[in-house]
Amino acid sequence: CALPISSWAAAGMLVPGPENFSAATEAENNAFIPFAKSSFALYPPFIEEIESLSHLPTGFRRHGAIELFFGPHAEHDREETLRANRQFQIPAEPLALADAFAQVPALNETASAAAWFPNEADVDPRLLTRAILAAAVNSGAELRPNSPIARLATDSHPPAAVLANGEKIHAAHLIIAAGCFTSQIPGL
After folding, report:
1. pTM of the entire structure?
2. Worst-scoring range by mean pLDDT, 13-22, 73-82, 88-97?
3. What CA–CA distance (Å, rounded) separates 136 from 141?
């Protein structure tokens, strides 16, 4: 089965909030951060289930992250980021630049301030994609890679996907994974 290349483009970063709180308005942060925290909390059990069903690793690691701040307002930006994290009970702490460079010598030396986020995690998008596909197959899903959908036929119940070759696929659950091209499928 071919893996979707778009899944490989993801960085795999898993964070409970935005990278830079000062770049968003307070209203945006107030709306987004609880959603992000809830989603982040669901990730470890999701990974556990995927690895259990697929018998494959996902590359999930919770090892924390260092965030660097640049320019003349770096200290202020870091303090605002730390304040906002504390406001939403997201663990974060200031980190001396010397300590940041000791942990990761290749960091950008033009940084003016640093912060440590101990709960941040990441996942390997390629390994995760393989594991999700294997978990789906192991759970009874039928995968149809490289099967372009010409349109969605809404004249039947449930609706059917009509492939480019004219074949109709009827299923109780149909997942169309066309990514950014989904909106171009007639009938959706």
Report:
1. 0.76
2. 13-22
3. 5
